[in-house]
Design a protein that fits this description.
Layout lengths: L12 H9 L4 E4 L7 E5 L2 E6 L5 E4 L2 H9 L4 E2 L8 E4 L7 H16 L4 H6 L4
Length: 124
C-alpha cells in the first residue's frame, strides 16, 4: 500500500495530497477552481478537498451506509447519489484510517476503468 503520513498528525490538504498522489496513476487537477483539489485516476475523480478543507471521497455502498448512519461522515453534496461521503474536518480522523479510505476510493474508481487504461496507468 502507499506510504501514509505518520500517526497522530493532522490530515490536512498537503497530507491528503501526498497520500492520494502516492497511489498508482493518480493525478491532481482543479476543475472547480484553485481552492478545490480533485484527485483523479484515469480521468475519474476519487477524492476531492474543498475550499474550506473538508474532504469528500468515493466509498462502497456498504461503507456509505455505515459511515453516514454512524454519523462519522455525511453524504457528500452533489455526489451522494454516486456514493460519496464528506468529512468537514478530516483532521478529526486517524491518518491511517483516512489514508486507507482514500486507497479504497482509488481502487473502486480504478476498477471501473478499462483494462487497457489500467495497464497504461500501471494499475494492472
Amino acid at each position: 500500500m502507499a506510504s501514509t503520513p505518520e500517526r497522530g498528525g493532522l490530515m490536512d490538504r498537503d497530507r491528503i495530497g501526498k497520500v492520494c498522489l502516492a497511489l498508482p496513476g493518480a493525478m491532481l487537477d482543479h476543475p472547480f477552481g484553485e481552492h478545490h483539489d480533485a484527485y483523479r485516476v484515469g480521468g475519474k475523480m476519487f477524492v476531492m478537498v474543498g475550499e474550506q478543507g473538508g474532504v469528500s471521497f468515493k466509498v462502497s455502498d456498504i461503507a456509505y451506509e455505515i459511515l453516514t448512519e454512524m454519523g462519522r461522515a455525511r453524504p457528500a453534496p452533489y455526489l451522494a447519489r454516486a456514493r460519496w461521503v464528506n468529512l468537514p474536518d478530516p483532521s478529526a480522523w486517524d491518518d491511517d484510517e483516512l489514508a486507507e479510505h482514500f486507497a479504497i476510493a482509488h481502487r473502486i474508481v480504478a476498477g471501473k476503468l478499462t483494462r487497457k487504461a489500467r495497464v497504461e496507468l500501471g494499475i494492472d
